[in-house]
């Protein structure tokens, strides 16, 4: 598990590209580019979070959109209460996600395989219905945010570029954090539980504690993505937690190569750009996206992950 | 006081009593072999002693503490370690990482998130030492999954040793190894005499009779005889119950 | 109050039976093939749409329903041969992704063919009335027919599974997948049959509810996830468990929605109670699932792990 130089180069290249993107947008006089890129970065954070448990822990969570929703509603609920500070929004999102992940994770992790996939999906759906029936916040229709989060009392994030760089800084920080975690003692135990849980028990580890901790960390990171997404759209609704969204997150992780944190960032970029491009071609883009997805899974020998692992 | 005292241990799958009021005593420092025909319940016994599977009743006292109902990972921390009949390693890790993970389990907290584990020299040094002891130090940086079958058996022994057990349960450690690898493993087990107490399940009778201080014979979930190898070999009861069946059932798959 | 309770009890039964028809196919596929099929919900939706179209074309709901059965059977067959068959020995992650792709394709295709506006189909004349239950209470005939048809299907399924050779193989397979091969069964064709049959059951459910629910592109999704809950509660692979859990989920969901706020009024003031009731009711089945799983991780009728 040594640092692979090519990986470091790829990371530098990708993050540099993100860093200079707003200038590129200026040069092209295309301000929409920054908006899309902010969305990509928010999803990249969520995909990164998911890859931590899916790629390293072998835990296929099909309900990670729940944390996007928790993050987004933290912004909506606090803003309504007159609290607009981004730091407090993030803190609330992380706390909320930690509570939800601890409870649902403790129950889900008692099961394995298919059960785990379905239960995480079901719990996310529970969150979805919770916010659908929360009429104070618009129910099904959601709420429009009066303003974006503030930074030190200043409305600096109202500028798209400032929002973009804030999201970028969070992505970079969380990426470095995730890399550190996967290389740490904790990361080794987590990866070991994916490799062979019985062996881990036989050397003295109880996989549950480590898997649950990873599940909570991952949920908290995904909630950060939700905060950024709410700010980007200025609008929060239960659709953030739709199970399709959870599926898209899994697609992003797999597009980039499972168990490859930089891949998750790249996967989110590829998936969203593909979506953008297909939606320009036809309003029925989900059909094309679905066909591409099915084809790639069917006709790459080890599934998508194999295809991309060979490439990286 | 003996290191391990098993009394009235029971386990049934439906109507089938796999472990039937079993008694077993293992003294500190000895190499204790358990032999018996296929289907006698040897692997089940190891699973019960290690905590991998739950027992229906009875008592397992280890170093004066009751182990019944204790989870496998806690028993490891109490000093009972094991190998598996079917090799169980972390295939995606290097050999060194496999053993280092075992060292990590007993040294310090694993809730450390920031410093890189592959730069912890204490873990790597001890892991390398264990690999060297079983004779595969030169394989340290190979992916465990890419090792030969015999090397995987050696690796598994190194992993078990790295947990620094007082009692080591070995489930057919020689199964599927070549002559040379088997020799090396027997040598390692010899070298453990007096340092680690060994409970050994093995079909290779030559190895059993050369290694064991005492032998217990397990038939249909019960120990029918325990004693030094020479006495056991001569015991007519054992010859009838075990050796007779062994030749008849030689074609069976291992249990 | 008792009248309302009886009414909601019947509604809950009817919802539960609907869930059972969907979950039965899913649980067999999960139990025997260890396969995650997210596309099962859209087949239910396709069944409803086909029933609407066939009813319009033939002018008879009964004929439409009858035509829907072989049609959804064919849908199942085609999907199995084109896609699912290639995924059996793949990791769950691949299965999830491929069937998720199918959900996108089929949902979008349905919208392209039938549009996104909700459709409906008339209840046939002779089933459109209502029958008296107790006192002034009446219940729509058609809903009783749905309950009856569902119960008959469950009974038929039970007979097939307990009394026939193929059923015996299914049970053996659900208990232990390696067993089917040992019994010398042609696994490929058995899998194909189960899949197609499961699709037909889902299509049947869709066709049955077409006259009482609105037929729209979102109808498959919420039901799919509730069917997951049913399977998880019942224990994967157990049709008996799926039946018990489906009725349980149907009742808890329906009764919780109507009586939750009433019960809550006993401990809090009315407006707070109705608000809390509205928020809690849709979550009830998930809370139920959490409790059952915490006590029995393999579900009510699942094999202990």
Automatic annotation (TrEMBL), chain A:
The chain crosses the membrane at residues 37-58, 65-83, 89-107, 114-137, 162-181, 208-229, 249-273, 285-301. It comes from the Bacteria. The keyword NADP does not apply. Its main location: membrane. The keyword Transmembrane helix applies. It is a multi-pass membrane protein. Keywords: Cell membrane, Membrane, Transmembrane, Transmembrane helix. It is found in: Cell membrane. Signal peptide: none annotated. InterPro entries: ABC_transp_permease, LivM-like. This is Branched-chain amino acid ABC transporter permease.
UniProtKB/TrEMBL annotation, chain B:
Transmembrane segments: none annotated. Pfam families: ABC_tran, BCA_ABC_TP_C. It comes from the Bacteria. One of its GO terms (molecular function) is ATP binding. Residues 4-245 form the ABC transporter domain. The keyword ATP-binding applies. Gene3D superfamilies: P-loop containing nucleotide triphosphate hydrolases. SUPFAM superfamilies: P-loop containing nucleoside triphosphate hydrolases (SSF52540). This is ABC transporter ATP-binding protein. It comes from Paracoccus onchidii. Keywords: ATP-binding, Nucleotide-binding, Transport. The lineage of its organism: Bacteria, Pseudomonadati, Pseudomonadota, Alphaproteobacteria, Rhodobacterales. The keyword Transport applies.
From TrEMBL, chain C:
CDD domains: TM_PBP1_LivH_like. The chain crosses the membrane at residues 12-31, 38-57, 63-84, 96-121, 141-161, 189-213, 225-255, 276-295. InterPro entries: ABC_transp_permease (IPR001851), BCAA_transport_permease (IPR052157). It comes from the Bacteria. It is a multi-pass membrane protein. Keywords: Amino-acid transport, Cell membrane, Membrane, Transmembrane, Transmembrane helix, Transport. Coiled coil: none annotated. Its main location: membrane. It is found in: Cell membrane. Belongs to the binding-protein-dependent transport system permease family. LivHM subfamily. This is Branched-chain amino acid ABC transporter permease.
């Amino acid at each position: 598990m040594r640092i692979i130089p090519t990986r470091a180069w790829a990371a530098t290249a990708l993050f540099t590209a993100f860093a200079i993107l707003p200038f590129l947008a200026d040069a092209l006089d295309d301000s929409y580019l920054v908006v899309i890129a902010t969305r990509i970065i928010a999803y990249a954070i969520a995909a990164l979070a998911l890859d931590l448990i899916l790629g390293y822990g072998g835990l296929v969570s099909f309900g990670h959109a729940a944390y996007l929703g928790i993050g987004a509603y933290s912004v909506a609920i606090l803003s309504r209460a007159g609290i607009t500070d981004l730091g407090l929004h993030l803190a609330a999102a992380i706390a909320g996600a930690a509570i939800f992940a601890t409870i649902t994770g403790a129950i889900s992790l008692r099961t394995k395989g298919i059960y785990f996939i379905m239960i995480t999906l079901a719990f996310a759906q529970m969150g979805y219905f919770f916010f659908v029936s929360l009429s104070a916040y618009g129910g099904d229709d959601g709420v429009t945010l009066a303003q974006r989060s503030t930074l030190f009392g200043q409305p600096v994030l109202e500028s798209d570029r400032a929002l973009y760089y804030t999201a970028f800084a969070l992505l970079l920080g969380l990426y470095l954090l995730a890399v550190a975690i996967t290389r740490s003692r904790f990361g080794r135990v987590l990866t070991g539980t994916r490799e062979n849980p019985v062996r881990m028990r036989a050397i003295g580890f109880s996989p549950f504690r480590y898997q649950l901790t990873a599940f909570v960390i991952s949920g908290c990171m995904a909630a950060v993505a939700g905060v950024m997404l709410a700010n980007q759209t200025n609008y929060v609704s239960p659709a953030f937690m739709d199970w399709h969204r959870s599926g898209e997150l899994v697609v992003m992780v797999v597009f980039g190569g499972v168990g490859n944190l930089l891949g998750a960032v790249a996967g989110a970029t590829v998936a969203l750009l593909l979506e953008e491009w297909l939606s320009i071609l036809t309003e029925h883009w989900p059909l094309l996206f679905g066909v591409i997805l099915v084809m790639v899974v069917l006709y790459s020998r080890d599934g998508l992950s194999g295809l991309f692992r060979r490439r990286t | 006081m003996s290191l391990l005292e098993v009394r009235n241990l029971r386990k049934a799958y439906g109507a089938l009593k796999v472990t039937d009021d079993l008694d077993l005593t293992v003294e500190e420092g000895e190499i204790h072999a358990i032999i018996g025909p296929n289907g006698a319940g040897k692997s089940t016994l190891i699973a019960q002693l290690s905590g991998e599977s739950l027992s229906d009743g009875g008592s397992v006292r280890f170093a004066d503490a009751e182990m019944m109902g204790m989870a496998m990972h806690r028993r490891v921390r109490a000093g009972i370690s094991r190998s598996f009949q079917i090799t169980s390693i972390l295939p995606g890790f290097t050999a060194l990482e496999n053993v280092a993970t075992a060292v990590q389990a007993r040294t310090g907290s694993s809730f450390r998130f920031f410093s890189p584990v592959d730069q912890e020299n204490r873990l790597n040094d001890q892991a390398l030492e264990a690999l060297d002891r079983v004779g595969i130090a030169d394989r340290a940086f190979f992916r465990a999954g890419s090792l030969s079958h015999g090397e995987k058996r050696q690796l598994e022994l190194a992993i078990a040793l790295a947990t620094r057990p007082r009692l080591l349960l070995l489930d057919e450690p020689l199964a599927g190894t070549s002559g040379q690898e088997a020799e090396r493993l027997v040598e390692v087990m010899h070298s453990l005499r007096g340092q680690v107490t060994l409970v050994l399940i093995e079909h290779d009778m030559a190895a059993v009779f050369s290694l064991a201080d005492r032998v217990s014979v397990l038939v249909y979930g019960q120990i029918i005889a325990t004693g030094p190898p020479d006495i056991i070999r001569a015991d007519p009861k054992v010859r009838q119950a075990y050796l007779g069946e062994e030749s008849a059932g030689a074609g069976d798959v291992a249990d | 109050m008792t009248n309302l309770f009886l009414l909601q009890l019947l509604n809950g039964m009817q919802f539960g039976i609907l869930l059972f028809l969907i979950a039965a196919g899913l649980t067999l596929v999960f139990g025997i093939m260890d396969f995650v099929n997210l596309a099962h919900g859209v087949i239910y939706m396709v069944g409803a749409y086909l029933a609407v179209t066939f009813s319009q074309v033939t002018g008879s709901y009964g004929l439409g329903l009858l035509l829907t059965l072989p049609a959804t059977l064919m849908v199942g067959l085609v999907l199995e041969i084109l896609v699912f068959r290639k995924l059996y020995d793949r990791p769950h992650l691949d299965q999830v992704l491929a069937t998720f792709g199918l959900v996108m394709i089929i949902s979008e295709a349905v919208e392209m063919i039938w549009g996104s506006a909700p459709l409906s189909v008339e209840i046939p004349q002779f089933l459109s009335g209502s029958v008296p239950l107790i006192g002034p209470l009446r219940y729509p005939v058609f809903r009783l027919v749905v309950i009856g048809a569902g119960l008959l299907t469950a009974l038929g399924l039970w007979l097939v599974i307990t009394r026939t050779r193929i059923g015996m193989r299914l049970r053996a397979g659900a208990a232990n997948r390696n067993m089917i091969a040992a019994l010398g069964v042609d696994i490929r064709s058995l899998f194909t049959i189960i899949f197609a049959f499961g699709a037909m059951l889902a299509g049947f459910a869709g066709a049955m509810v077409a006259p009482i629910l609105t037929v729209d592109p979102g109808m498959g999704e919420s039901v799919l996830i509730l069917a997951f809950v049913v399977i998880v509660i019942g224990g994967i692979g157990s049709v008996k468990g799926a039946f018990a859990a489906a009725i349980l989920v149907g009742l808890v969901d329906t009764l919780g929605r109507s009586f939750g706020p009433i019960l809550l009024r006993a401990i809090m003031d009315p407006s707070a109670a109705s608000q809390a009731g509205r928020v809690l009711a849709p979550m009830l089945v998930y809370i139920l699932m959490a409790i059952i799983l915490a006590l029995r991780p393999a579900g009510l009728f699942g094999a202990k792990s």
